Amino acid sequence: QVQLVESGGGLVQTGGSLTLSCAASGFKFTYWMYWVRQAPGKGPEWVSGINGDGSIKLYADSVKGRFTISRDNAKNMLYLQMNSLKSEDTAIYYCHALDSWGQGTQVTVSA
Prior knowledge:
By secondary structure, this protein is mainly beta. The chain has strands at 3-7, 10-13, 18-25, 33-38, 44-50, 57-59, 67-72, 77-82, 91-97, 100-101, 105-110.
């Protein structure tokens, strides 16, 4: 069965950086993978996506130029490098693939 486990969230000051990780198992790690976030009181927001071999990377306008998605297919790992963090990046970040979601990891950006 598909399992996605996020890690790497935490509390960081405005302008700081964090790297999120997602460990995937239970499926052939060749599919598109995505990061989606949900801020308090708001609906889910798609953040970024990456294709199977990592050659195509897509970003929401709100994070373009600040976030970088990557994957290590040998390790079945997905990453999200987040730089220049803003308070509006505060959210629970989820890893998503196929029809499955991880449990999420909390990112809190303080002023």
